[in-house]
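Q: For a teaching session next week I want to show students how multiple molecules come together into a single three-dimensional assembly. I've collected the sequence lines for a complex. Could you give me the predicted structure tokens for the whole thing so I can convert them for display?
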Amino acid sequence: MEHEITLVVNGATRRVNVPARRLLSDCLRHDLGLTGTHVGCEHGVCGCCTVLLDGRPVRSCLTFAVTVDGQEITTVEGLAREGAPPRGLRSAGSAATGATGEGGGTERPSRPHDVEEVKPALSPVQRAFAECHGLQCGFCTPGFLCTVTAFLRDNPAPSDDEIVEGISGNLCRCTGYQNIVKAVHRAAELLAEET
Amino acid sequence: MKPPPFAYHAPRDVGAALRTLAQVRGKVLAGGQSLIPLMNMRLAAPEHLVDINRIGSLSAIDATPAGVRVGALVRHSDAEHAGAHPLLTRALKLVAHPAIRNRGTVVGSLVHADPAAELPAVLAVLDGTVRLARWDGRAVEREVPAREFFVGPLESAVEPGELAVSAFFPALAPRTGTAFEEVARRHGDYALAGVCAVVTVDGDARVTAARVACVGVGPVPVVVDVTGACGGVDVPGASGGADVTGAFGEVDMTGASGSAAGGWAEAARAVQEETEPESDVHASAAYRRHLVGVLAERALRNAAREGAAARGA
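A: Of course. Below is the structure for the complete assembly, covering every listed component.
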């Protein structure tokens, strides 16, 4: 039996029919096409599927979509938008959004720059991970970004120990965590500068 | 790794939930942080799930001088931030990871009755209770004490058709301190062994009552009253001595008196004798027995010190 549910995902209201057993992670990825949320272990250990539910990090693989009917969800796709600078500061190039024309012979020479400029600004946490090499293969990164975004909101100037505790529910098999801890410190700096 | 299909019920109030449970013999879904992994791994396949997440009345934390009553939908993180009970708050920081605690519930942890989990030990050491309700023409409730609630590993006294609606954690007596010490391979993992202690002292900082509950060393939380072993012990450092805490818990730099050390060690031995640890891939039974002794002594000392410090409060 299918259930009609409404989720507010990254600010947009989405209505979707799901069977009761649909995990929130699968609902986001398969039903809503938001494949930024990654699925690792699917039993709550790895933290890759962490999303924000009404602003708080939760395991989307340990949550049924029907249970969170009517609630707000932020995925990694929504972090950039959240952290984007105010509209007035965006470059004028954003008008080029619709400009696709793969293989067309009459491309404007300036197109690569336009494409660069329409990308939404990365959030401070995302920029800090990029700057500090807080990721390698990137599989665990969406979960870390959601976890750290909420963590720094609750604790804007954490110590090393608090960071390690805060990210203890997210596994990374590439980095050895040192650069992730650096990235969290850097994100805290960036957030402090920007507010 | 996908959960098997089930019929889904989403009652809006407790009465509707109880009527549904009386009809369908389903499993109750609250936070789902233990149930959904079991379903994902196909270790559980309930035909009916009764989702209580829409029953707002179950989200209440009700603190009175007698203690704190925690509703069935109170998430670990809500209880932690409410700070309604010092030992509960302390134990919650040891439960899994922040993302799990944002979803998992206090009462759910009790009903799951994992012998390696922290919250059953907290309820047991405090002599708390769990309120169960079922439908019999009307809602009928019963209050089950912790010593009868935990029946075996992953087995609680909740009967088919019953819903655990709340748990009650009694308040601490005056001049009482608590501690929760555990050893886990990583923070947030299930502990290899753990001990929570509740120690009451008199006006001269002498121990008058001491109880511990141990996790991971028996089929249910192992509660031991060690007042006989360490009653009357003078609490070292009670007069404001240095509190030095290292990565592995307290390091006593104040120089305990001979009699005090004897009392704590005797209490730790008494605790070891009551436990029945088992060997598994993580640790041998002998190592767990060793750990529980060390942790019992550490927890008792720290709880006693906190109790002594609370004398002036």
